[in-house]
Amino acid sequence: MKRTANLTEGHIAKTLFKLALPIMGTSFVQMAYSFIDMIWVGKIGSDAVASVGTVGFFTWLASAFVLVPKIGAEVNVAQAVGMKDHERVKEYVRQSLQIGVFLALLYGMVMIVFRNQLIAFFNLGDENVIKDAVDYLVIVSLGFVCFFINPVFTAIFNGHGDSRTPFLINSIGLVINVLLDPLLIFGIGPFPRLEVKGAAIATVIAQVIASSIFLLKARKLPDVFSDIHFFRRPKAEYVLRISKIGIPSALQSGLFAIIAMIIARIIAGWGTTAIAVQKVGSQIESISWLTAGGFQSAMSAFIGQNLGARKLDRVKTGYFVGLAIVSVIGVFATVLLFFFAEPLFAVFVEESETITLGIDYLRILAASQLFMCIEITTAGAFYGLGKPFPPPIVGISFNALRIPMAIGLSATSLGLNGIWWAISISSILKGTVLTAWYIILIRKRVDHLTV
């Protein structure tokens, strides 16, 4: 494969950076779809932001299902590349794509059939907000096949050591989304004014085009994608291996999304402005966790290839090098969110009340940025080792703690800010516990690790 990186040789920090930077770019591109939508929709008003933000929980839940084939492909492809087993690489490619398409069709159907009941869960109150949310959910559901397979293609390329190609392809999709958003939202030129629905249509079109480019690129890479026979019956051993690696992470993310929905319902008690604050604030905060997510994927591929090649010293050293790098990112994020909260929030909304509440949100969440970054990177290290259970055990436990903490703290003089503190404190606990767990494991059992 052109541009494939051998992660088992060379300077560790340079190798991680070279792999991680395009992955981080890809993560930012994928985040920017909703980021750009939010900027343009925010110009309509906080009610429109609340509509899009509510549906965002269901696309977040969709992302949890995507993690089954995504993480499974990324880790297993990386380990097979490290072992130089090209047939195993192709099998993991085929069956991860099959799983992705199946889950997309199933999830999309559920979203469309139960759209009214799903939106009703949030008790939004405003009929216009509810209608916009339902319309947005239906439209994005129609594009879920592309929403699912694009990250899987990205994971396959990353696991093979080529993080540049998916970055370029996803960037093309983003540019298309940026161009279409104002045209369809505000009805510029010959286009009708579709507002919230226009944002959804723009995103779906961009995702479809990105998927088409991935497919064209795959046809030019026969050493990875040839003879995969997409419609052939899946092999149980590969499906189980993909599922074993991917399901724990998907379970963590899915439960995280469900917990976030419950938190959102609590937030709804403060009105649609509070919902908009949480949605916009999480978009801004995603700058740090998507950066860390790039290092998570890089760490997973790096450790997976080196474990497959039995280079255990690089497995051990690579983690601490990556941890040092991501710690710098976490500190930078803390400074950015705390000292520049007002101008960051003002990019998305114009209402003074929303901006004031948003400043509190960002400054409280700033306290947890370092811990969140090291948690995400450490999770990637566990995945690379083929040990997918510690991250969800820690993540689910402390994410669930957010619900009673949010209820308890918000009932004090902290009010709405008590919910933000519940989120921040749980992130600090997750980062501390998961990192300690990994360090204990790697120091005691590195010589006994197997693929």
What are its keywords?
451 residues; mainly alpha
Give a description of the structure:
The protein has about 450 residues and is mostly helical. The protein has 18 helices and no strands. The longest helix has about 35 residues. The chain is globular, with a radius of gyration of 21 Å. It starts with 11 loop residues before the first helix and ends in a 6-residue tail after the last helix. The chain has one domain. The relative contact order is 0.13.
Q: Biggest β-sheet, characterized?
A: none
Helix/strand order: HHHHHHHHHHHHHHHHHH
Number of domains: 1
Q: Averaged pLDDT, please?
A: 86
- The outline comes out as globular
Count of separate DSSP helical elements: 18
Rounded to the nearest angstrom, the distance between the terminal CA atoms is 23 Å
SS-derived structural category: mainly alpha
Radius of gyration: 21 Å
Task: Summarize it.
This protein is mainly alpha-helical. The protein has helices spanning 12-42, 46-82, 86-113, 115-120, 127-141, 144-159, 164-186, 196-219, 222-225, 236-267, 272-308, 312-339, 341-346, 352-366, 369-384, 390-400, 402-410, 416-445.
